[in-house]
Structure formats: C-alpha cells, structure tokens
Design brief:
With 310 residues, the protein is of the alpha+beta class. The chain is 58% helix and 15% strand. It starts with a helix and ends with a helix.
Length: 310
C-alpha cells in the first residue's frame, strides 16, 4: 500500500465520539465524494463511490451512528483494472436522504459549498479535513518529495478548503489542473501539522522518521560536496602557485626573491598538495593562512610582471 493509502486506512479507523464532529466528517465525505440526486422535490437519493474498502466502511459506520441508516452497498470491478473493486454506497429512501440533507445542511446544487455552520468548532474542522482527505486527498511518497493535495471539482470548494487549512496557519495554495482545482501543501512542517490535525499519528511518525533520514542524507551530501569543492579549490590554487614559482625560477631564479618569498616558494615546490594552513605551520616562525596567502600574492604579482614583459 502507498503512503497515501496508509494515511487513509488510519483515518478511516478514526471516528470521533462527538456527534457534531461525525456530522462534519459525513458532510465532507458526501460534499467531496458523493452525489445527491433529486428526482422530484421530495424524492432523492445519496450516492458515494470509492475504491477504498476502509472508506466505504467508515461512511457506513457514520451513517449508522448519526442517523441509524443502513445503506445499500454494490461492488463491481474497475473497467480498466480488474483487480480494483469499486464500492458504491447508496441511501435510497427519500425520507432518510432528506433527513441527511437537512442535518448536514447539504446544498441541492451539486457544485456549491458545504455549509460553514457545520465548521464552527475546531474539533469539527479537524473532522471535516479528515473526511475531505479520505475522499479527495493524496500524498506523494515522502522519500521522493513532500507534496500533499486535495482535488476539488469546483473552484468554490477548493477556496473553502484552502481557507479552512489556512485558518490553521498551513499556508495552503490552490492551482487549476485541467477541469479541476487542487489545494496543496509542499512544506514538510505544514504536512506534519495537517497529519496531526487529522489525527493520523502513526503516519505522522512514519513521515517524521523519513524526514530525519532525508535530512541526515542531505547534510552528508552537502558536507561531501563541500569537501570535494574545497579539495578541488586547493589543488587548483596549488597548481597556479607552482606555475608562478617555476616561471620565476626559470627566468630570474628564486635567489632573486626576498628570503621570505624564497622560503614559501621552496616549501610549495617540495609540497605541491599541502594546504596553505599546513604550509604556514612549516615556516620559521610559523605563519597564519592570511600571511601565507599574502606571500603567494606577491609571487603571483612578480610572475605576472614577467609574463607581461615576455
């Protein structure tokens, strides 16, 4: 099972004991993954369809707890992938449907928002987010990237969901994708906060463990790259210094240099790969890195004058 599937399995097994929270979660499940079919003003049915058996069971459980309604469940194979089952849960009795619509304050129009009257308490908002993720959410493999998203069929639903997430300081963003609208989070800290809000604590710990390992690996890679870059830099600088010294030796001889420059020039020729700090320690008296660099700059200036004359 994917990481996203693990989250949904955990969320599907989490049911609030408060009825108002159960109603908020039901409203999200129907609002983001269901259809209300009105055949006549007083005749309607509610249908929710999912490929996840745990979500199907959760929806049936909420219907039973909130309304003492037993829905009809139909199972069929996916038209493309025969190994995938599709669960269709339908409330057919009109009086049951109207009771659900009235209690959940669901709109008659399929593309309007879930009523904010159900989301006045923080616990209800958390339950609503849990239901919304079950029906429209997904998350990438955190070993590859940090990306959690909700796919909404209308812009109004996406904006309401974005506003709800940002009410918890999550900085969610919305982007259109084909004929749908996606609300997404891309920061690890924001995803951790959302998993905590939805009470997906097992998934949160797994995510944090992956984050720690990724951070350690990234730190090691940065340190390795830094060490390699420093080594290359040292080799390049040493090669340039030796070229300057050999040019001076060939043209005017090292004996033409002041004693301090003669000393560092001879040390560099004898120790072509030694870092500047170690070269400075070999001088008499020892010299710091800046002092050694100053002497090499003097040698470079002399070599440049020779090149100019040539």
């Amino acid at each position: 099972m994917s990481f996203s599937g693990d989250i949904k399995k955990e969320l599907a097994k989490t049911t609030s004991k408060r009825r108002h929270c159960q109603i908020a979660e039901l409203a999200a499940i129907i609002g983001f993954g269901g259809r209300i079919i009105f055949e006549e003003p007083s005749e309607c049915s509610i249908c929710v369809q999912t490929e996840n058996i745990f979500i199907a069971k959760k929806y049936c459980t909420l219907l039973k707890k909130c309304f003492n309604i037993y829905a009809e469940i139909a199972v069929r194979c996916h038209s493309v992938s025969k190994n995938v089952r599709i669960y269709r849960i339908t409330v057919c009795r009109s009086d049951d449907c109207l009771r659900i619509v009235e209690t959940l304050k669901l709109p008659h129009a399929a593309h309007t928002l879930v009523s904010p009257l159900l989301l006045q308490q923080t616990c209800c908002k958390r339950a609503f987010l849990r239901g919304a993720f079950l029906m429209s959410g997904s998350m990438s493999n955190p070993e590859k990237s940090y990306h959690l998203e909700f796919v909404c069929d209308t812009e109004s639903k996406a904006l309401q969901l974005q506003e709800l997430l940002n009410g918890f300081s999550l900085n969610a963003r919305t982007v259109p994708r084909k004929k749908q609208f996606v609300v997404y989070l891309k920061e690890g800290e924001q995803i951790v906060d959302l998993l905590n809000l939805m009470e997906a604590h097992v998934a949160l710990m797994a995510f944090e463990n992956i984050r720690i390992l990724r951070d350690i690996a990234n730190t090691i890679n940065r340190q390795t790259n830094c060490d390699v870059a420093n080594s290359q830099k040292t080799v390049t600088a040493s090669s340039r210094q030796r070229d300057d010294i050999l040019l001076i030796e060939k043209t005017s001889g090292l004996s033409s240099l002041p004693p301090t420059l003669q000393e560092i020039a001879c040390l560099r020729l004898e120790n072509p790969e030694l870092p500047i700090r170690d070269l400075g320690a070999m001088l008499s008296p020892p010299l710091g890195k800046s002092g050694v660099n100053h002497r090499f700059r003097k040698l470079s200036q002399i070599a440049d004058r020779i090149r100019g004359n040539q």
